[in-house]
Design brief:
Two copies of one chain form a homodimer. Chain A starts with 7 loop residues before the first helix and ends in a 6-residue tail after the last strand. By secondary structure, chain A is an alpha+beta fold. Chain A has helices at about 10-15, 20-30, 35-40, 45-60, 80-85, 90-100; strands spanning about 60-65, 75-80, 110-115, 120-125, 130-135, 140-145. Chain A is globular and about 60 Å long. In chain A, helix 2 packs across helix 3 (about 35-40). Chains A and B meet through helix 1, helix 2, helix 3, helix 5 and helix 6 of A and helix 1, helix 2, helix 3, helix 5 and helix 6 of B.
Chain lengths: ~150, ~150
């Protein structure tokens, strides 16, 4: 094999595999809509944020909408698309790893809860037959699509 | 709030929030151990790969082990640590998103299976009381740790 592995992880990372893109997505999924607020919450430099927002809009992850506050000029808000919302498990999985390995003495800064019951939410590995797999990937097997053909 | 949000997503991304780091981790979790093989499967430039491997070892995600093939010089292999293995849900979540949104006409290149039953494995959002949440994050609520104190 002399070309890089064909893989949906690699394709996903071409779009969101970079610190600022995922932090921007975190903000928009938390309901933050405006450039200045996204900038403040992420700490992204202005030029970087402009570029990342454009890229996320072009990739169909965010949608830009105009709004005009009373007496002010038209501004833009950023909303997640359905495809953008479906990145939520990636963020939850990153958060639970950071909570476990990087939280420090103060503990995790944010808790992800189920709105209905208040239970802590995690990203679990589950197979289509309903078996839960351990979070360290034991019991998981990667099968290239072309193996076993014919 | 004038400082960036305290968040385990951000802390995790400081370590793995970059395309090559997560692709290197993908390879090592797939069982690829040697520099040349990781380089070939990821397509990472040599200098970048050297730097990313060092960073992942320093962060306690990978472990470097010496080995010596018969009659050759000592070489290094890379193995995942327990903390590294626990990033598996992040990779599965990225893969399922790419499978769904970026797979193209050939379909997903790799299938993640449960070793025991062959069922396709996904990263699901589940609360501690056993409720399944939709993958688009509906029903999910982020609660800052200091809210509700006192």
């Amino acid at each position: 094999m002399d070309t890089p592995r064909a893989c949906s992880v690699a394709r996903s990372l071409e779009i969101v595999g970079e610190r600022w893109s995922l932090l921007v997505l975190r903000e928009v999924l938390l309901g933050v809509r405006r450039f200045a607020d996204i900038q403040r919450h992420t700490g992204a430099p202005r030029a970087v944020l402009t570029q990342r927002l454009r890229r996320l809009v072009d990739a169909g992850i965010l949608e830009r909408r105009d709004y005009r506050p009373d007496g002010e000029r038209t501004r833009q808000e950023y909303h997640p698309t359905p495809a953008g919302r479906e990145l939520q498990p990636v963020l939850v999985a990153l958060m639970q790893w950071g909570d476990r390995h990087l939280a420090g003495p103060d503990g995790p800064p944010v808790r992800m809860e189920h709105h209905d019951c208040g239970g802590a939410v995690h990203a679990h590995l589950v197979c289509e037959h309903g078996h839960a797999l351990p979070g360290d990937g034991r019991g998981l097997r990667a099968v290239p699509r072309d193996v076993g053909a014919g």
